């Protein structure tokens, strides 16, 4: 039935891969989901039956080839199936961020002209109903969880299981259509459309073909020797390209099992129960896990803390070398083995990372200290560099060549080049087809020869061939004296400290660098509780004298570290402010993937930035905020502007030649 057209006779579409797996791995687990505390499992054969029934139901409801199907909700097998069922019908799935507000959803659904939506629960139904008048092409909505929806108008609202039943009953009427559509699908057919995070403007629809998905899944799986017996935990936003390539693309190519947690609240428990062998997390997740570890150690007895500090110091010294198979003395190995028994093993088990064979982090640069911490435990954590437009993979770190200061070598089939201004360009089989309805941006990003501009500044090391990313090209600049300004480098060092959740560094074209800092409410709140310090709000805790002093010590520690880098020593933070609120995606300050929107922050907090540079000791400010129920309000605060100790800068500059 399915088209077999790719090189080597391999399946040429997602539905073709699915049918192959239903035969080749028929009774092996394909998807698991924890619901009501119990893990449920579906084999590849059962998965095909579930998806085909939904696809037939789509056709019964009137879905046509080329239609767009919005998919919104947390990670659940049924929502992954909703995307593959759309492919089976020749339609295009468009996953959206589940925490997007109604207006953000309206923009994406209107831009692509979605006729159908498959959503997880009542919350998503309500958001779409709120903006349905803005969606002239929208016709039908399918919901998974029926709770709270009994009294809704079901004229154009359908329960997921009912649509599947519809499909099973109408199989004889529609199966020939499914077969005809699948026979036409090939490498150049659209597989999925994913929207960018929109750090610099409106999100753009990135069109990815079957070629992009399958070739990338194939080469990346072979690069890391992924196995059919591997397990992955699917918990990242379904609208993010990384989740799609790991939980759908690679899962289909290799045949491993995708596991979905019960909820965000049970994620850590579910992670421990599954014990994934293949694990991906953005730096923020690893930062939060490390923060929780440090919080627990602060609560531990003096003996346990000393034992932890003793063995962790040894792990940082020899752990990465042991992991990479390098020569380490017998005494050091034995001491590390004791650490594994008493500290590293129990800690990895608590984190749910005991079985990780291949681990990756990407999306943002990770602090070297955080990266080295996990590798010192014996976790094979590596870095990769990618983009939505590349179907994720551009570079990755091979086993035995893992370093905290690079993002690895080119992935199989990928070519790299560095422009004169330092911007990184690539081309590969994963390069996106186009930005939907946006030929101008497509032409600006991808040239006629297929080279794609990443927007990142970096260089390829001589000898090793490893790529080093300095920062976003648009963010890299020069201080007034000509020295290099790379804010992300400093921000990542600041965020290593558990007390600091987010940092935004300023200084391009100026004499000095300054910073706006967010405290981590979990870590600092735990400290306050241990020390019997009462507080009524985030704002009150953030301006507590002891909290301010702790942040100052962190800033000065980072300055000491930055001063050692000849190229970036001019980026030390001279003055800083601890912000009175958390930077929030709902307030437009972060993207849905928690990337900082520098321009918006610069405009919104212009009064604070002015105070950082004019010598003020305090600044009074008023900030508009958005509450969870959509209402807006404002917060007034008087913030202390603090000066930090700065070390003499190194002599090497990026001269303005």
Residue runs with pLDDT of under 50 for 5 or more positions: 652-657
How many strand elements?
A: 28
Evaluate the radius of gyration. Answer: 25 Å
Q: Return the CATH topology of the largest domain.
A: Rossmann fold
Which structural category do the helix and sheet elements fall into? alpha/beta
Strand order of the largest sheet: 4-3-5-6-7
**Shape label:** globular
Integer average pLDDT:
92
CATH class categorisation of the largest domain: Alpha Beta
Distance between the termini: 63 Å
Individual helix count: 21
Largest beta-sheet characterization: 5 strands, parallel
What is the annotated CATH architecture of the largest domain?
Answer: 3-Layer(aba) Sandwich
Looking at this structure, what is the CATH superfamily of the largest domain? ANL, N-terminal domain
Strand residue percentage:
15-25%
Number of domains: 3
Helical residue percent band:
25-40%
Description:
By secondary structure, the protein is α/β, with parallel strands linked by helices. Helix content is 39%, strand content 22%. The strands form seven sheets. The chain has a five-stranded parallel beta sheet, sandwiched between helices. Strands 12-13-14-15-16 form a five-stranded mixed beta sheet. Strand 27 and strand 28 form a beta hairpin. The relative contact order is 0.08.
Map the helices and strands.
Elements (H helix, E strand, L loop, with lengths): L13 H11 L4 E7 L2 E6 H18 L6 E5 L4 H12 L3 E5 L5 H11 L3 E4 L2 H10 L8 E4 L13 E3 H10 L1 H14 L5 E6 L9 E5 H14 L7 E3 L7 H14 L2 E4 L6 H8 L3 E3 L2 H17 L2 H22 L6 H22 L6 E4 L6 H9 L4 E7 L4 E5 L12 E2 L4 E4 L4 E5 L6 E2 L3 H7 L6 E9 L6 E6 L4 E2 L5 E2 L1 H8 L5 E7 L6 E7 L1 H10 L7 H5 L2 H18 L10 E6 L19 H7 L1 H8 L4 E9 L5 E12 L14
Parallel strand pairs: 1-11, 3-4, 3-5, 5-6, 6-7, 10-11, 12-13, 13-14, 25-26
Antiparallel strand pairs: 1-2, 8-9, 9-19, 14-15, 15-16, 17-18, 18-20, 20-21, 22-23, 24-25, 26-28, 27-28
Helix pairs in contact: 1-2, 2-3, 2-6, 2-7, 4-5, 8-9, 11-17, 12-13, 12-14
């Amino acid at each position: 039935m399915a088209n077999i057209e790719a090189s080597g006779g391999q399946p040429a579409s997602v539905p073709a891969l699915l049918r192959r797996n239903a035969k080749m791995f028929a009774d092996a687990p394909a998807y698991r989901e924890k619901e009501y505390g119990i893990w449920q499992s579906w084999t590849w054969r059962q998965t095909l039956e579930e998806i085909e029934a939904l696809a037939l139901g789509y056709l019964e409801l009137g879905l046509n080839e080329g239609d767009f199907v919005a998919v919104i909700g947390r990670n659940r097998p049924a929502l992954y199936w909703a995307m593959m069922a759309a492919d089976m019908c020749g339609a295009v799935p468009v996953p959206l961020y589940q925490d997007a507000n109604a207006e953000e959803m309206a923009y994406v659904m209107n831009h692509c002209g979605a006729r159908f939506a498959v959503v997880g629960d009542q919350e998503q139904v309500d958001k779409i109903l709120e903006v349905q008048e803005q969606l002239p092409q929208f016709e039908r909505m399918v919901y998974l969880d029926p709770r709270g929806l009994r009294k809704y108008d079901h004229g154009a609202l359908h329960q997921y299981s009912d649509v599947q039943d519809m499909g099973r009953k109408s199989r004889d009427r529609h199966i020939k259509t499914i077969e005809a559509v699948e026979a036409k699908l090939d490498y150049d057919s659209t597989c999925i459309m994913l929207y960018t995070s929109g750090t610099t403007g409106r999100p753009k629809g990135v069109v990815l073909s079957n070629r992009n998905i399958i070739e990338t899944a194939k080469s990346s799986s072979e690069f890391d020797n992924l196995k059919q017996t591997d397990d992955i935990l699917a918990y990242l936003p379904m609208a993010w390209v990384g989740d799609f390539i790991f939980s759908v693309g690679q899962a289909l190519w290799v045949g491993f099992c995708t596991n979905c947690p019960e909820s965000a609240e049970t994620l850590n428990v579910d992670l421990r129960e599954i014990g994934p062998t293949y694990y991906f997390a953005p730096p923020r997740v690893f930062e939060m896990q490390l923060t929780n570890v440090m919080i627990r150690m602060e609560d531990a007895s003096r003996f346990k803390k000393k034992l932890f500090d003793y063995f962790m110091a040894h792990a940082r010294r020899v752990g990465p070398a042991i992991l990479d198979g390098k020569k380490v003395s017998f005494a050091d190995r034995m001491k590390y083995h004791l650490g594994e028994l008493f500290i590293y093993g129990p800690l990895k088990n608590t984190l749910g990372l005991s079985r990780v064979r291949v681990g990756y982090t990407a999306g943002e640069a990770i602090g070297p200290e955080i990266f080295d911490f996990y590798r010192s435990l014996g976790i094979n954590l590596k870095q990769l560099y990618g983009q939505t437009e590349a179907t994720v993979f551009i570079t990755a770190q091979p086993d035995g060549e893992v370093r905290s200061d690079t993002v690895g070598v080119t992935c199989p089939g990928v070519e790299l080049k560095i422009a004169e201004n330092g911007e990184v360009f690539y081309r590969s089989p994963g390069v996106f087809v186009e930005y939907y309805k946006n030929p101008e941006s497509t032409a600006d990003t991808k040239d006629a020869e297929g080279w794609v501009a990443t927007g990142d500044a970096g260089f390829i090391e001589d000898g090793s061939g490893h790529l080093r990313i300095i920062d976003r090209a648009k963010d890299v600049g020069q201080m007034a004296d000509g020295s290099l300004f790379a804010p992300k480098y400093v921000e990542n060092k600041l965020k290593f400290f558990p007390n600091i959740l987010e940092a935004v560094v300023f200084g391009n074209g100026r004499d000095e660098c300054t910073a706006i800092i967010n405290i981590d409410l979990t870590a600092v709140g735990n400290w306050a509780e241990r020390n019997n310090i009462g507080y009524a709000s985030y704002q009150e805790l953030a301006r507590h004298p002891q909290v301010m002093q702790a942040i100052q010590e962190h800033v000065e520690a980072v300055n000491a570290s930055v001063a050692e880098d000849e190229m970036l020593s001019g980026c030390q933070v001279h003055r800083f402010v601890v912000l009175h609120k958390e930077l929030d995606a709902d307030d437009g300050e972060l993207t849905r993937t928690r990337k900082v929107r520098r321009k918006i922050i610069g405009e919104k907090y212009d009064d604070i930035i002015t105070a950082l540079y004019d010598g003020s000791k305090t600044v009074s400010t008023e900030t508009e905020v958005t509450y969870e129920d959509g209402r807006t309000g404002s917060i007034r605060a008087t913030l202390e502007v603090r000066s930090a100790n700065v070390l003499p800068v190194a002599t090497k500059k990026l001269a303005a030649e």
